[in-house]
Design brief:
heterodimer, A: mainly alpha, 2 domains, 5 helices, flat, B: mainly alpha, Four Helix Bundle (Hemerythrin (Met), subunit A), 6 helices
């Protein structure tokens, strides 16, 4: 199976694959524990009934940390090829524009009505 | 004719075609959910008042479901790691666990939805519930799609392990990328809808 392994991975072909995968597995377990802990943190913080802007900031910050952990380690983005990064950078740019669209409605969108 | 670059790496992209394909698909999914999140922001900021999610929705159940999905992401990546180690038996256990956890998520969601309907709370009741049912409903469809794909690789698709283990491993990895994306979406949906 060793030959299969070397050819399989787009992202981490090494000479000692078993050791490499073992290292990955240890990281997966660590990330799992971190994600569980952060979920508890999110719920615990919401119990404080913080002012809405602060509550939104904290909740999104924790969600972004959790999302980054999933993307970087479970989806292997931490060691991905440049083309994938390019695709995601473009997606992120359009995503930000999409989320910023509601801002156009500020003051009934006076500045786009002319 | 064989499908090109399922196993060997394309020189120009440095990737298999399947890998670049799934990432392009996920990019479109980001925009799909992004449009709905933008709608949520628009509706919420435009509303004279907005209920806190925890006054209407069941936070303990949703917290449990968050943990279930996170666990399923771990079992999914472990299923792939098992194939990379050449352990097909272990792969089957992890893949079955992933599907089972997806099923648990759907069962919990069924109880949540049933409770809302029983209380006369429908998507047409107010804007909060409209956006709640739309976002969680679409997410649930993705969970079902991911489960169907994983069930295929656990069942009939698993035959490929004997004939072409490398391609099979790559396909499971791509299926995993979709599953992790579904988990990632929930990580943002949970605080947005239930806690704020």
């Amino acid at each position: 199976m060793t030959s299969n392994h070397a050819a399989t991975s787009d992202h981490a072909a090494t000479s000692d694959h078993a050791v490499d995968i073992d290292k990955h597995v240890r990281i997966y377990i660590t990330v799992f524990v971190a994600l569980m802990a952060l979920t508890i943190v999110t719920v615990a913080v919401s119990r404080f009934h913080l002012p809405v802007p602060l509550a939104v900031s904290v909740a999104l910050l924790v969600a972004m940390i959790k999302g980054s952990l999933v993307a970087c380690y479970f989806m292997h983005l931490i060691s991905e090829k440049k083309l994938i990064y390019a695709v995601l950078a473009l997606t992120a740019a359009f995503f930000v524009v999409l989320l910023a669209l509601p801002v156009l409605t500020v003051h009934d969108g006076f500045w786009i009505r002319g | 004719m064989d499908i090109p670059y399922t196993v060997e790496i394309r020189r120009d992209t440095g990737l298999t075609n399947g890998k670049i394909g799934i990432w392009l698909f996920l990019a479109s999914e980001v925009m799909l959910f992004g449009a709905l999140f933008a709608s949520y922001i628009l509706i919420r900021t435009g509303a004279p008042s907005w209920p806190r999610g925890d006054t209407i929705l069941n936070v303990p159940l949703a917290t449990f479901n968050t943990m279930v999905l996170i666990s399923s992401s771990v079992t999914m990546v472990m299923a792939w790691a098992s194939l990379m180690r050449g352990r097909f038996g272990t792969f089957r256990i992890y893949m079955a666990s992933t599907i089972l956890l997806g099923f648990v998520f759907l069962v919990v969601k069924y109880f949540e939805y049933s409770h809302k309907f029983h209380d006369g709370l429908f998507p047409s009741t107010n804007n909060f519930l409209a956006i709640y049912f739309t976002l969680t409903g679409l997410h649930m469809l993705h969970v079902m799609g991911g489960m169907a794909m994983n069930a295929y690789f656990l069942g009939p698709g698993a035959k490929q392990w004997k004939t072409d283990p490398v391609w099979f491993t790559n396909r499971v990895e791509n299926s995993g990328l979709f599953w992790h994306f579904v988990d990632l979406v929930w990580i943002f949906l949970f605080p947005t809808l239930y806690l704020l």
